[in-house]
Amino acid sequence: MFMRRLLYWATVAGGLVLAVVPLPEWLAPVRPDLALLAVIYWILTSPRIAGLGYAWLAGLFLDVLQGMVLGQHALGFLIVAFLTHRLQLRMRMFPILHQAGAVMLLLALYQFVMFWIDGLTGHGYTGWLRWLPVLSGALLWPVIVAAGDSLTRRAG
Amino acid sequence: MVELTHDSRPIIGRGPPLGATFITLAVVSIALMVADQRYDQLGTVRAWLSAAAYPVQVAVDLPFRAWDWISGSLADRSHLRRDNLELTARLRLANLQLQRFAVLEDENRRLRDMRAKTSGVAERVLVASIMNVDLDPFRHRVLLDKGAVDGVFKGQAVLDGDGIVGQVWKVNAATAEAILISDAEHAIPVQSNRSGVRTIAVGTGDSSRLSLPFVTVESDIKIGDLLLSTGMGGVFPPGYPVAQVNRVRRAASATFALVEAKPTAKLDRDRDVLLVWFKAPVPAPQAAATTSSVKPPAARPATSQSATAAASASGTPATPAPAGASPAAPSPAAAAPAAAAPADPGRQSATPGADR
Prior knowledge:
The complex is a heterodimer of chains A (156) and B (356). Chain A is mostly helical.
């Protein structure tokens, strides 16, 4: 159990680090929200371990890393985590492409919440580039699932 | 297909219900956001949290720095020789120009002294490196590797060898976040070097473009004009290059001309920048700007107002009798020592509330 918790935090920490690693300028807007994808995946596999508090803390740490308004990403992660929890039994039954579509909707909702809070705090960026992570994240979902499954199997 | 684990089956009646947790945490995040954005009350919390984030940021930065160091130390001899020659030549040229500048600076200082103005020359400079940490692709913010321990303060000017880069926006213990002049939320007062026209240069979110939205159709701005900082607002030292006008379009029917300028500083290519301490050109409210470091000094009238408000508020408990006189007379001499006294941020921000 402890090892699992450690594994879940380690993967999210990896995602958070990758969220601030410098990328070339043309690639930076495509950067998927890996930490959020990891949170969704772990909630789907083991909802009793990866709870809402886990998602919320991960989002809060992303706020701190990026120097955003405290609570912005935390709220986004929380909303996505809550919906994933509610849809968990259904989403696990979906075939992989169908599942990627559902994840895309979740990511779009997350991005919309970010967009909304950005607007409220006066940082609004309204270009379409903002929505690219939704697409890249959904495309990446099968890879996340494959990597996560092999990790889970190894951890036992 | 997502694999199930032994844990996955929901067990009824263990832990708090999902909805309750969700609502609690959502309320906490909204409260955090309001406290952070509206009231700026989370200084210490943020400082602790960013201390936790510091190792991550260093870890992200480290490989890039190591690569720089390795490629620098493995550079071959001919390369170094070429660099050396080029640098020597440039140094010679710079020294030559410096000789001329020394004379001009003397003359300038004499002229300014005659006009009873202190010159806004940088007094102390600290070199800071930009850390290789991406904050947000749509905001022009960078993380500097100097922080509160080095004396960096909020609203400090950031320069590079070619001009003004931006200003410090958030100060953590060992790092500081700077906002670049090209950020869409940033504006800097500038003056045309050729015609003396004053205006404001606003960032566009594009690091090669500033916009000058408040230039009227008939004002004297041409392509190629160098825009210098005016020192108004007390954030930036006056007389440093900011941008060069590269586009002017005047429509006969419009009130304002469409003017764009290219920043002189290498905003997207800088590795090292300079943090500057300088003497503000206006002597009286300068004490408030440097000691408090709470409010960005961009809002000059507001700062001096709160300084007088602080003067009246801090005056009341100690000496009740003359306090009635002090708010009526907004003399800078009365405001300056009082603004220096309440150095703690809590008091500064508390006084306007008590005022109303």
